[in-house]
Specification:
It is a single chain. The chain is an alpha+beta fold. About 45% of the residues lie in helices and about 20% in strands. A six-stranded antiparallel β-sheet has the order 2-1-6-7-8-5. The protein has a two-stranded antiparallel ribbon with strand order 3-4. Strands 9-10 form a two-stranded antiparallel ribbon. The radius of gyration is 29 Å and the shape is elongated. The relative contact order is 0.09. About 5% of the residues have low confidence.
Amino acid sequence: MKHDTVLQLGDFKFSRLEIPEKIPFGGDQHLTVHELVGGVRVVDAMGRADKPIEWSGLLQGPDALQRARHLDGLRVAGQPLALTWHELAFYVVIQSLHCDFKRFYDLPYRLSCVVVHDMTQPVQHAALTSVKDAVAQDTATAKTLGGQIGDSSLSGLLQTLDQMTAGITDFGQALRQQINPVLTTIAAAIARAETLADEANGVVSQVVEIVNGVQKTIAAVGGVVTDATTLGGLLPDNPVAQRAARLISQAQAMARLPALLKLKAVLGRIRTVLAQAQARVGKAVGDSGKTITVAGGNLFSLAASEYNDASAWTAIARANGLVDPVIDGVHTLWVPPLPGATGGVLNA
């Protein structure tokens, strides 16, 4: 870095040899990789993971020790600070500061900062007017994946979802009564996709058994093919026909798995966007409920905490289009102001 670059951390402005030649920034992308049979790989991008911003320099001059102590005070405080240089700007927390005392006027230092927020490339939350486009794109993707999976129940749910979302012209003005059925349909589609994915995963455990039986099947073919062909082809109850049908059905189930994993991710994204829109609409119309971000757990404990009644979990479930009281992963949930009397029955 040129020494004409202005580098500032909180109220501390670096100068001269305190400014390093370079400051690395950037990081990784959190990825979840699903390794499937046959070399198929499904990769879910889970979000940015910025590396700490680290650099070193030299504090020199009669006030070098005082400046080093001031930097150390910022570390001890542990507060988010603005870190800026050139066109780059971040909110950071000082993770570590190491100073080597040589003389009170000569102190090399090393600084490491954890990124809290990138102000140069901030996370953009979808505006209410653009939610429809985002949902429409994801819904189209979900329908395409549903066609690849070929399950009639799932395809029916995705078709219903497409019709529901198409009927809402502006998610920014939609009431909770309009969004809730959409969330419920998404939850049902996710549940169906999870069931199919579990079935497909179960097939994988049978692959070894199939492979071990291939040689026996080939040997059996030599013994029965003559009799079978004299009857005009393989009979339905013939051992070879049964084994072939089994192989075909299992191959089809395994082929579904990549599309099912992608579909779950897409439906989860639609649900998150709509839940956020729902929460914003509730605030705009003066709803006295509130939003809570939770990481795992279940709706029973949440209802007990909010209403002193675990059976009121159904009110939170309906408000967020959920059918399962178990919370998997991080979710922002809308908690209605009054649960109503349901007795813990979801369809009440």
